[in-house]
Design goal:
The chain is an alpha/beta fold. Among the domains are: 118-258, Rossmann fold (3-Layer(aba) Sandwich); 531-657, GMP Synthetase, Chain A, domain 3 (2-Layer Sandwich), CATH 3.30.300. The protein is 32% helix and 22% strand. It has 21 helices and 30 strands. It has an eight-stranded mixed β-sheet with strand order 12-11-8-6-7-14-15-23, with helices on both faces. A seven-stranded mixed β-sheet has the order 5-4-17-16-18-19-20, sandwiched between helices. It has a four-stranded antiparallel β-sheet with strand order 21-22-24-25, with no helix packed on it. Strand 16, helix 12 and strand 17 (334-338) form a beta-alpha-beta unit. The longest helix is centred in the last third of the chain and has 18 residues, at 582-599. The chain binds 5'-O-[(S)-butoxy(hydroxy)phosphoryl]adenosine.
């Protein structure tokens, strides 16, 4: 793991200081928790039977008779069963008499902009949208791209696709037109659902213009369905573009759903890997829904008839798919759906939402916790947060300081914190404490969920002992696992199943402490984690090299107090490009940052770009990223003797200290 030491020294040290601290589950919560202590043994005694029992909590039109067909690395779960994901998330709750129950308390970013959507409302909307999609010619198996703000229509669109068996591919609204186009093309989507724009950080941002730009490259897209959200002017192509209010709102509110086989593709979610091309992660229906429903119920201890659940994430990422849409709805839960980012709408917006809607369970990312932490204890202290019972964290390793702050100031030392480890690929949570059973430690994800088999192994694939670190692997298939990478089975095999034969390689470093509890340490590959968003170094390098002035680029993730990691780029310009003075340097750096924003999206803008005459390379010509990371994190430089030209790194180092870090 030496090339990729995942945590900064400081973080590792503070983890050590907290390692012996542990908190037991609160007795009142434990007494009536959904998961009781016997659960681990029950699942271990017969893993497949245990998962089958979880699956039977769903409604199957044709019950399954097989649980797992495993032809490494290809899995089929509940293969001969048939069901409809949307019916499981919506219709069955209405049929059970819960039509008037709230599915979503939607909170828009502009203050006072709210909507309440009951399960009956959801059924009607989803039925209309399914009818509308069918009238646009969408059939089972067709891919539909969704590029939307966090509005109820986004959830309705996903469910409508699921209802008619058309896999959706949600693209985060913060991605650029180019990023959207490449995703549409890769999976050959024929319909795009979008909005004129959305509210982000206090302003109306445009979405439809990005779609228009993207579609210049995507001739096979024949229809665009557009929600009016902000009222801004948009260009319109007659015949291709359809307003949601003309098409969906006028469609029939009843729709007869058919069932699909359990392995019917449910959605694609693109995520960054170690190359410039994002991977279309494929999830299917029966196993995925089983996994997200079971984890949601047991990890967050959700009581559907009492609780208000809030995953503060965007549906553009897998967290939103699994724990805003499919898991909570399969369990008939009432959720908060908040349009804005935590930093928008006032610094106490979050606490007002918790107070107003009496949120019982809050699930968010460490980067947000660190931002709230910077704003101080007074803001949460000024609000009634007594409704909270369980707190969750996801997306990146949580540093013990943030964990302790979350516990004290948000959970008021009463709420257990579940640090949940998973990935786009895993579909749902795999490593986590269970709030009524497992003791928690600040910074540890603790143990595999019941029915999940994980290990930490060394370079040779041998399990490490307690107190040792290595690579996280999953040793048995699980129901929510990805079924492949769209159109690229070889890449599926080589990325996940080849590093250690026979087991799933997660790409994360992990450690077992002296008690055998698991600590996740961050990525061991060239994937960065910026505010919980996954971005590959190669993707950013690729974007930079796309600029006509750039000769070479090397990108590293440097640890950052708020965002976890931040992007630092080292760039050399082409011989014929003159950058004479500071103003010219600044102008070029600005231009390069914008190039990254338009190629990938604003989330991938480097915090810092260093122009340098040369990059440090080994004699064989390989860029030494380890050194660049040392430079970016202002560390003492390691061994430079293998460098072709050791003076290069000193030069870069000087530039780094000369330039400020406040460009972002
Ligand atoms: C990567 C997956 C899971 C939904 C959001 C991110 C990191 C995720 C944790 C955690 C330490 C974590 C890993 C993983 N990660 N959760 N609790 N502790 N690291 O999904 O974009 O697919 O990213 O996020 O490095 O590999 P993703």
């Amino acid at each position: 793991m030496s090339e990729h030491t995942p945590t900064s020294g400081q973080q590792a040290l503070s983890a050590l200081l907290h390692e012996n601290r542990r908190f037991d589950p609160p007795p009142e919560l434990a007494a009536r928790a959904n998961a009781q202590p016997s659960i681990y043994e029950e699942a271990a005694a017969d893993r497949l039977a245990w998962w089958a029992e979880q699956a039977r909590r769903l409604d199957w039109d044709t019950p399954f008779s097989t649980v797992l067909e495993w032809d490494l690395p290809d899995a089929k779960w509940f293969a001969d069963g048939r069901l409809n994901a949307c019916v499981n998330c919506v219709d069955r709750h209405v049929a059970a008499g819960k039509g008037s129950k709230v599915a979503f308390h939607w909170v828009g970013e502009p203050d006072g902009d709210t909507r309440t959507i009951t399960y009956k409302d959801l059924l009607e909307e989803v039925s209309r949208a399914a009818n509308a999609l069918e009238s646009l010619g969408v059939k089972a198996g067709d891919r539909v791209a969704i590029y939307m703000p966090m509005i109820p229509e986004a959830v309705v669109s996903m469910l409508a696709c699921a209802r008619i068996g058309a896999p959706h591919s949600v693209v985060f609204g913060g991605f650029s037109a180019e990023a959207l186009a490449s995703r549409i093309l890769d999976s050959d989507c024929q319909v795009v659902i979008t909005a004129d724009g959305g509210y982000r950080r206090g302003a109306a941002a445009a979405l439809k213009p990005h779609v228009d730009e993207a579609l210049e490259q995507c001739p096979t897209v024949r229809a665009v369905l557009c929600v009016r959200r902000t009222g801004q002017d948009v260009a319109w192509i007659e015949g291709r573009d359809h307003w949601w209010h003309d098409t969906v709102e006028t469609a029939s509110s009843t729709h007869q759903a058919q069932s699909f086989e359990a392995e019917q593709p449910l959605y694609l979610m693109y995520t960054s890997g170690t190359t410039a091309k994002p991977k279309g992660i494929l999830h299917t229906t029966g196993g995925y829904l089983t996994h997200v429903a079971a984890t949601h119920r047991l990890i967050f201890d959700v009581k559907p008839d009492e609780d208000v659940f809030w995953t503060a994430a965007d549906i553009g990422w897998v967290t939103g798919h699994s724990y805003i849409v499919y898991g909570p709805l399969a369990n008939g839960t009432t959720s908060v759906l908040y349009e804005g980012t935590p930093t928008a709408g006032g610094r106490d917006r979050w606490w007002r939402i918790v107070e107003d809607y009496k949120v019982n369970i809050l699930y968010t990312a460490p980067t947000t916790i660190r931002t709230l932490m910077k704003w101080g204890e007074d803001l949460p202290a000024a609000h009634d947060l007594s409704s909270l019972r369980v707190l969750g964290s996801v997306g990146e390793p949580i540093n013990p300081e943030a964990w302790m702050w979350y516990r004290k100031n948000v959970g008021r030392t009463r709420c257990p914190i579940v640090d949940t480890w998973w990935q786009t690929e895993t579909g749902g949570i795999l490593i986590t404490p269970l709030p009524g059973i497992t003791s928690t430690k600040p910074g540890a994800a603790m143990r595999p969920f019941p029915g999940i088999s994980a290990e930490v192994v060394d370079n040779e694939g041998k399990p490490v002992g307690n107190g040792e670190g290595g690579y996280l692997v999953i040793t048995e298939p699980w129901p929510g696992m990805l079924r492949g990478i769209w159109g690229d089975h070889d890449r599926y095999v080589s990325t996940y199943w080849s590093r250690f034969p026979g087991v799933y390689f997660a790409g994360d470093g992990a450690k077992k402490d002296d008690d055998g509890d698991l600590w996740l340490l961050g990525r061991v590959d060239d994937v960065m984690n910026i505010s919980g968003h996954r971005i590959s170094t190669t993707e950013v390098e690729h974007a930079l090299v796309g600029h006509p002035s750039v000769a070479e680029a090397a990108v590293v993730g440097a640890s950052d107090e708020t965002t976890g990691q931040a992007i630092v780029a080292f760039v050399t310009v082409k011989g014929n490009v003159q950058v004479e003075n500071e103003a010219a340097t600044e102008a070029l750096v600005d231009e390069l940052r914008n190039t990254v924003a338009t190629t990938i999206g604003p989330i991938a803008k480097p915090r810092q770009i260093i122009l340098t005459p040369e990059l440090p390379k080994t004699r064989s010509g390989k860029i030494m990223r380890r050194l660049l990371r040392d430079v970016a994190e202002h560390r003492e430089l390691g061994d430079v003797t293998t460098l072709m030209d050791p003076t290069v790194v000193n030069m870069i180092s000087e530039k780094m200290t000369a330039g400020g870090e406040d460009e972002a």
